[in-house]
Amino acid sequence: MTSSSSVQQAREALGKRLREIRKDSGLTARELASRAGWHESKCSRIENGRTVPSDDDLRAYTLHCGAADQTDDLIATARNIDGAYVEWRRMERSGLRRAQESVIPLWERTRHFRAYSSWLIPGPLQTRAYIEALLRSIRDRRALPDDLEEAVQVRVDKQRILYEGPRRFAVLLEESALRHRIGGPAAMAGQLGHLLSLATLPNVSLGVIPLSADRTALWPVEDFWIFDDAQVNVELVSAFLTITQPHEVGMYAQTFSELADSAVYGAPARALITSAIDSLR
To answer: Which residues form the HTH cro/C1-type domain (predicted)?
Structure first.
């Protein structure tokens, strides 16, 4: 979990809150540890953000510090921290379908989507053939249980959000994402053609950053999604990262804005997509 500064800051914020509760009670860390039956260093590890407390740890804190009214809120806070950095092997241990379903509530409540990708076409804009090729590769590479058909269908069904409600989508692609061949030439040609079609939707803004763009000020970064101004999701090699710290969400929003300045839109973007299609022949 230490690979995310957002997660670490959330740990430290929780630890600071617990330290304040303990000090308000008049207990020292040693006294609290003694009453709870802990090693005397445990309070320090928790209060300095080195350890995420368990539910029982938090119940002990609030019991001995006379703050039982805060127990439920503290437990919910700690559980959210634990869910901020989730390894793929944990999320996908029963197959790919669960991972696809896990983001549906977030997608349904979001009204403004911003996505940046340097290597793949983002999920809502993918064709079934493209999705199937991607998920088959993930299934095989990670040796997952085979629920490919169900997972593909979940992802296809999620694409209804493009057409439902007052939702807006701003998508930025590096030109390289148009050139990476996923699923073979025919599947890729179909995907790029579908992209041209979706770019005409009134609620979709599609920008492409040309390979020829000057990247001195801002080079390609990790792929990410911004959901309203509340949350950022990043897919790492080993895990799925959720960022909710406001200042970090703001950093991604600023990065998205700067990347958008390097992109082309409309006819120039369509020309880059058409060029990628032509290269498949």
So the answer is: 18-74
CA-atom Rg of the chain in angstroms: 23
In this prediction, residue 2 has a pLDDT band, given cuts at 50, 70 and 90, of very low
Residues 59 and 144 in one domain: no
| Total structural domains within the chain | 2
Kindly report the three-state secondary structure assignment for every residue of 190-243: HHHHHHHHHCCCCCEEEEEECCCCCCCCCCCCCCEEEECCCEEEEECCCEEEEE
The residue range of the domain holding 12 is 5-82
Tens digit of each residue's pLDDT (9 = 90 or more) over 100-128:
998 999 999 999 999 999 999 999 999 99
Instruction: Compute the half-sphere exposure of residue 136: CA atoms within 13 Å on the CB side of its CA.
Output: 9
The pairing of beta strand 112-117 with beta strand 168-174: parallel
pLDDT given for residue 1 in this prediction:
37
Bridge partner list, 241? 85, 234
SS3 171: strand
- Calculate the CA dihedral of residues 113, 79, 102, 231 and round it to 10 degrees: 0
* Coil vs helix vs strand at 24: helix
Residues 42 and 92 in one domain: no
Alpha-helical regions (H) of 65-203: 71-82, 88-91, 96-102, 104-109, 128-142, 148-158, 175-179, 184-198
pTM across the whole model: 0.78
- Residues 144, 198: contact at Cβ < 8 Å? no
Tell me the three state secondary structure of residue 86: strand
Phi and psi at residue 67, in whole multiples of 5°? -130, 45
Which tokens is 57 given?
């740890």
How far is Cα of residue 24 from the mean position of the Cα atoms in its chain?
37
Kindly state the tokens that stand for 131: 């999705």
Please tell me the distance from the alpha carbon of residue 72 to that of residue 88, in angstroms, as a whole number: 28
Of 14, 112, 99, 25, residue with least CA distance to 62: 25
